[in-house]
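Progress against Task 2.4 (sequence-to-structure conversion) is shown through the following example record, which the project officer requested during the mid-term review.
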Amino acid sequence: MNSYCSLKKVESVLRKAVLVAVLTTAAAISTSQRAEAAANIVLWDTVSPLSDPLNVEDRTGWKPVPSDLLALETDPPKASSDPGYYGREYSFKGDAVVENRSLAAVFSSAKGRVLLYSKGDVTTPNGARSAQLGRKVVEFVPRQMKTERSSISRCEILRNADDEVALDVFFSATGSPETSAVFVFGKTEIVEIKPAENLKGISLVGSLEYGVMPGFVGDDLVYGPEEYPSANTLCLPVENLFLGLLQGEEGELVMTWPKGKQQLRLQLAGNEQSGKRLIESVDFDNAGQSLYLAALNAPGIWHKETLSPAYLEKDVPIKWKRPFAAKWKTQLSEAGVKTTFAFRESKGQIWRGVPGSYSYPVWFDSDDAFYHLSKKVPPKGESLIYFLEGNNTPLSTSTPVDIMKATLGRQTCDPILDIPGRKLRTHHRRGGDGVRRACTCGCTEVIQAVFEAGEEVAKKKDIEGALDDMIYFVQHHVGRIEEYRRFADDMIKFLQGKESASPKLELYLESLEQIAQQIPQEYNVQKENMRSPEYAGELTRQTLALTSKKDANNLKAYLELLKAWRAMGGAQDYVLAQCHTITRKLCQEAGYGCVNQTEAVVLADQIRARCRQALRNPDGYEIWADY
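Structure tokens generated for the chain above:
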């Protein structure tokens, strides 16, 4: 028993000696080195409050807050063995700073704001990580305190571990009740903000050149302040993901949030230094739900290219190069409608139902970007290049969609991304067999080759198969047009019903109704040219009749039928492409037209949801897959 007690005393002395040695060694390491040495994340106390303006690069005197607060006691082993010490709270002498390899957050008591910095591009010449905090992305402040003199009254540590730091941060301002939010940091660039019950709105103050509201079926909505010279506030239809393109083309702010009744507004202002308008803050009504932020950084992570007449009808290399592999895309004007074009890996041609054949306008040669614009896709305005999804993207690089999946989960993200809805529908009756181009042009071309070879009698079965493939294609082509007609009829009734119920929105709804009316108008103009199923059946009968016996006039007779087939098919192709283009335009204008009317935002969400449903699984004659 005595030997056991003696042994325990020796162990206690050794533990104390080891702890003293560790603390002595740690004290000798500089604060910047300690940040580098931290496995994943470190919580700092600046010891004295940071002044305003902030000097966050001078870390002299900063101290890391230990994960185990009992290490601050005079006798840590004794404190850890005594429940009386448990539950110790930490009191910051200065300001709190949270830092990992991707970001840093400064909780400035003097400014009453949380400053978010991105470290994604901060390296020393030899490739090592820099001790600098990085580039400031945005400043967080409760929306009701954005224009007031505010302060951070206190920060409470909820969790401080090697893999996660959570702080409950309290904000105060004269004339406003105290409010708070919980900030959660992990090993990545993602920050979660959980608002208190009385924190109804959040402002993210920064310098953004553009705001992007992604749409994974249809086109993204891109908001540039220059497009709204007389507006100070833009009300956006929110769809769980927002991308802010930071001034300088080297950073992006990604925002995600769970489904709810959130609202998002962009506050616009002129910039004295650049002389142009910028988005000065993103104001977000959180509806009691968490908000997730992430900053992505890389030189050239987005790019704006001004399109001049010099781009017309020639290959134009631009100075911007893609910084990494991803699904890079831009919007250009095709048939008077903003259309999404993903950058391809090589130059080529494309055929579209309305404009016809033209050079595909954007592609890469290695990492060099090229444009070839034409009268069909003219050099008009600005082309904004950015990415949302990966495509052979390095594992070390996060995409906005990666951030959305990590924060909202796949169950929420799946209907937003709608991967099944982005797949082209097939008109191939025999799948991979039969005629590869199962359209009126492709099938008639195959049949023409048989007649030209004089083999129409011997290969009657092949002609019958091609005709069946073509009829199958025509039936589904016409069926898709009918889907758009039903969509337009329902949409027109919906808009007319809302007009009578919402007099303030009459002009907004009328403008959308005029767009929807274009679908039945286009159909009626081309109705006679599209013909009928009976007409297609008669063409089939006449074509097959030429295979009953060998005749020198068969080829000539077939070529006349070929003209009829293609005239019918061409009219159908045109109407279908027009229906798709009009629906995309309606979807876009619903989102752009609501920006000056808060009341219109809810309607815009409903209208856009109907449009996206109609645009799911497009025909290849409408647009390419996964646009």
